Amino acid sequence: MPTLESAQAAQTFTVIKTRVFPARRARVYDAWTQPEMATKWFGPADMYCTLAEFDLRVGGSYRLEAMPTSEALTNPDLPEARRRGAVVTGRYIDIVPHELLQFTWEPSWNPSEHSTVTVTLRDVDEGTEMTLKHENLRTEASRQGHNKGWDDGLDKMQAMLSK
Fold first, then answer.
1. How far apart are the C-alpha atoms of 113 and 132, rounded to whole Å?
2. Average pLDDT over the chain, rounded to an integer
3. Edge-to-edge strand order for the sheet containing 100-107?
4. Does residue 38 contact residue 49 with C-beta atoms inside 8 Å?
5. Cβ atoms of residues 64 and 51 within 8 Å
6. High-pLDDT (> 90) share of the chain, %
7. Backbone angles phi, psi at 94, to 5 degrees
8. How many domains does the chain have?
9. Cα(21)–Cα(30) distance, rounded to whole angstroms?
10. 3-state SS string for 75-122
11. Are 47 and 69 in contact, with CB atoms under 8 Å apart?
12. Own/partner pairs for 45-54, CB < 8 Å, 24+ apart?
């Protein structure tokens, strides 16, 4: 019989985001897979992406690096770990060009948390509907942090793709 501790350890959290972008699927897919586009949107509002590297093949790796904005650095409440920036690495699990990206997510700020992100794209009258599902987050605090981070990053992607 499972104990309370094992039941709690098995519990995971998920973030799901659905957005419609005024762009073709190929352009939204490129925002996820082209370094020059990813550096324009990836990361929370108070950070900017300094590096995006993608080995776009099943089993291939990726690396995203972000640093706090100069405005964020003047915030005395910014945690020291955040001042050093953030790195996310992982490997591609599944790729269907212009339709699906699935990859592992291994963040520098929580190295023991290994989760999975799935991005699906489909045509709609207004452009492209993107659904992001980030699964296997270990705590509610992690879910909340990723929820905010994805909202901020997708807002930046929305602005980029609306131009």
1. 18
2. 93
3. 13-21, 127-137, 115-124, 100-107, 86-96, 61-68, 47-54
4. yes
5. yes
6. 82
7. -150, 140
8. 1
9. 13
10. CCCCCHHHHCCEEEEEEEEEEECCCEEEEEEEECCCCCCCEEEEEEEE
11. yes
12. 45/152, 45/155, 45/156, 46/71, 46/72, 46/75, 46/78, 46/152, 47/72, 47/85, 47/86, 50/85
Taken in order 45, 152, 106, 61, the sign of the CA dihedral is negative
Residue 7 covered by a domain: no
What whole-number distance in Å separates Cα of residue 66 and Cα of residue 46?
10
Domain containing residue 91: 12-161
Does 144 reside within a domain?
yes
Q: At residue 5, does pLDDT exceed 70?
A: no
**Residue 28: which of 159, 161, 118, 154 has the closest Cα?**
161
Q: Let me know if residue 4 belongs to a domain.
A: no
In a domain, 2, yes or no: no
Identify which of 67, 161, 145, 148 has the alpha carbon closest to the alpha carbon of residue 113. 145
Helix, strand, coil percent values for the chain (each to nearest 5):
35, 40, 30
Q: Is 14 exposed, middle or buried (0-12, 13-18, 19+ CB in 10 A)?
A: middle
Q: Residue 80's domain is classified under what CATH number?
A: 3.30.530.20
Task: Give tens-digit pLDDT for 94-136.
Answer: 999 999 999 999 999 999 999 999 999 999 999 999 999 999 9
